[in-house]
Automatic annotation (TrEMBL):
Gene3D superfamilies named in the record: 2.30.30.650, 2.40.50.100, P-loop containing nucleotide triphosphate hydrolases (3.40.50.300)
PANTHER family in UniProt: H(+)-TRANSPORTING TWO-SECTOR ATPASE, V-TYPE PROTON ATPASE CATALYTIC SUBUNIT A
MF term (GO), any: proton-transporting ATPase activity, rotational mechanism
Domain ATPsynthase alpha/beta subunit barrel-sandwich span(s) in chain numbering: 130-217
Protein name: V-type sodium ATPase catalytic subunit A
Amino acid sequence: MTQDTVASMPAATARVVAINEDVVTIELDDDDAGCLIKNEVVYICPPSSVDRPRTLLKAEVLSVKGNEAEAQVYEDTRNVGVGDPVIQSGQQLTVELGPGLLGQVYDGLQNPLPRLLETGGTFLQRGLEVRALDDRHEWSFEARVRSGDEVMPGDTLGVVQEGRFSHRIFVPFALQGTFSVAWIQAGSFTIDTVVARLTDEAGNEHPITMAQRWPVRHPLSQELVSLGRAERRYPEAPLTTTLRLIDTFFPIAKGGTACIPGPFGAGKTVLQNLISRYSDVDIVIIVACGERAGEVVETITEFPQLADPHTGGSLMDRTIIVCNTSSMPVAAREASIHTGTTLGEYYRQMGYDVLLIADSTSRWAQAMRETSGRLEEIPGEEAFPAYLESSIRKLYERAGSSTCTAGSAAA
C-alpha cells in the first residue's frame, strides 16, 4: 500500500488489545465509533520510525463479541503492539473482476506478483498492496445494449476481447433491482473509464466501468440464482482429461468435484499439471495453497513455454495462477482458495468451462487448524477445527454446472 493510500485512509476507530502471533484482538474506541462486522477488512497501523515508514497491515475479522473482535492478519505482526490504532474499511475481503485476469500470477489476496516485484523488489515487503488489474491498458469495448434498454444485475452490457476469449462486461452483481441504460459508449478505454450509466427505478444514476469487486466468501452463483439470473443444473457431460486411467476408472463430470489423495512425493502435483494441460476446458485456475516454493516456481516458469494443445498458443493465455506458498503468511493461505474459486465463478458466468485445481486442500486445512488454535477454539479430530467438515463442504458446493444469463451452460 502506497504512502498516498495510507494518507487517504479514514481515521482509526478501534485499537489492538491483545496479540497471538497473526491473530489479534481489537476493540472499538467508544460506543459511538460504529460496530465491528464479521469478515470485515481492517487495517492495523504499527508505529513508524525513520527506518520504518508507516504501513497498514491488512486483516480480516473472524468473530465479533460485543465491542471486541478477533482478526487474522495477512502479514507478519512484528512491531505490532497493544494500543496500535485500527482502521475499519467497512468492506468484506473482495477480489477485483474484469478484463486482464488471464495470464496473471497472484498471491492469495490477488496481488499480482510481477507488479509486487516492480514495486517492492525481490523480497515481499510487509503492508504492500498492488491493484489486481492493469489500470493503464486500454481494452476495445463493444456495446451489446442500447440506451433505453432495461437490464438487471448479471446482464451483459458489452464485451471486450481478452486474448481469444470474449470477456463479458456485466451489470455489477452487487446492484439490486431493474435498471435502464441511460447512456453507453463504445471504443478503447481503461478499466476505470465509465462506459455506461444506468438509472434505477428511483431515478438515481450509477456509473459503470469495466471492473467490479465481489466478496470472496460469498458464492457468486448463489447470489445470481437468488436473483433469477442463473440456474443450477445437474452435471451431464464428462470432463475429458485425456488420461485414460482417470477417464476410464475414475471419470469426472463437468461441474463435478474430485480429489487426488496420496502421501508426500506420490506425484499428485505432476498429475494435476497434466490434467490442467490437456483437459477439454476453456479456463484453468491453479491455486497453489501452501505448496513448496520450488513446485510453484516450476509451474510459473513452465506454463508460459508450453503450447496449448487446443489452440497452439501459450498455455498461460488461458490460465490464472493463485500462489500462496508454504513460505508466505499462513493466514493468506486460507483465503487463497476462496480467491481462486471466485475468479472461476466469474468466468463460468460468461459461459466458459472452468477447471479449478487447488493444491492442496490438506494444507488449506492446516492453515485453518493454526488459526483455530490461536483462537483457542475447542479442537476436533487431529486438532483440526470442529467446523472443518462444513468448511470443506461449503467450498466444494461452489462447483457445479449452471446456465448463465446469456443462456449458455457452463461448468
